[in-house]
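Appendix B, record 7
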Amino acid sequence: MKQTDLSRWNTLLILGGAATMLSLAMGMRQSFGLLQPHMIRDIGITAADFSLAIAIQNIVWGATQPFMGIFADRHGARPVALFGVVVYAIGLGFAVTATSAWSVTLGMGLCVGLALSCTASNIAMSVTAKTVSPAKRSMAMGSVSALGSLGLTLASPLAQHLISTSGWQTALIGFLGLASVMLPAAWMASRADKIKVPAPLGAAQTVTQAIQEALGHKGYVVLAIAFFVCGLQLVFITTHLPTYLDICGIDPSVGSTALALVGLFNVMGSYLFGWLGGLYSKRFLLGGIYVLRSIFIAAYFVVPPTPTSTLVFAAAMGTLWLGVVPLVSGLVIHLFGLRYMATLSGVAFLSHQVGSFIGAWGGGLIYSRLGNYDLAWQGAVAIGLAAGLFQMTMNIQPSARILAERNPAAPA
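Structure tokens (predicted):
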């Protein structure tokens, strides 16, 4: 089947499934920070223990993402996505019955990390890119990323309500209900497996050759290194903002409302940057996101927080949250084509998840050692400013292979 053979209804089903799967996978994962103060008190773990579990989640996600991308490129998204939903549910089951740090790490760390590599942005963007024409690709990826943000606006208030009324275990049971919705969504999204990607004009490329080509491209290396800061900043905020508000004496409902606002404004931001990415330089837009995030983090943490400043901060960060996804995916396709998009996006994503590991564990470690988050947010700001400027220098010339395919009549 070709893209042109899809009816409008079938296209909407695939994109809707991808957005729903992404939305719930990310929404639950980004709400785990709301559980931290309660799990610390009830189980007897420390902030560093919880942070390490989330850090392991991120590093497992990053380490397995390239392999899941390779499998999806070879065998399709369906087996990957369905496997991820099942593992996500198993991880939540371990977390519900957790009585020690190791069980939290096994469930929320190892299992959820593996599940995210199968159900989150990499697979969703690969499905989306296959489903729409190149002219509509940036806008479509921005739209799916935007709709994928709605999960946080659902999962965060749901979790806080259930925590307040019935306890954190009930909140995780509620998440199991959301995970069950991911199953049909993953099935619908993976109907994109039937779409055939046009074969390259030259000799067929193996996955090893594709990775070697990418790692030899200076622009791709810059993209991957700068992607590190995205993970560091976002996971630091989702993991530690609720605890930061708790130690500042602010009502827990402010934390859940802030996370919901992140998801809500992310809808507008992701759509906006998907649209802008089709009109303007993706590398400058991406670098600008990193710089603006750093400025907002500094402005928020430099003075004692209030409920109002927290909600304004959440709205500002939400606008810049997942707008990076269509930009990074679009740059990968621009440089190397569509054939190994899931694989190459996954390799770049490993850098993102190393940043996530440091943002989660490092933030908890700094707080446990120093009793405050000052050094953590200052580091996030400094690294973010440097990465944003670095990103703007990226070489965006496609690989020699792609240039030859797009301009077969041009001289070598």
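Remarks on this record: The chain has one domain: 3-193+205-405. The two ends are 33 Å apart (CA to CA).
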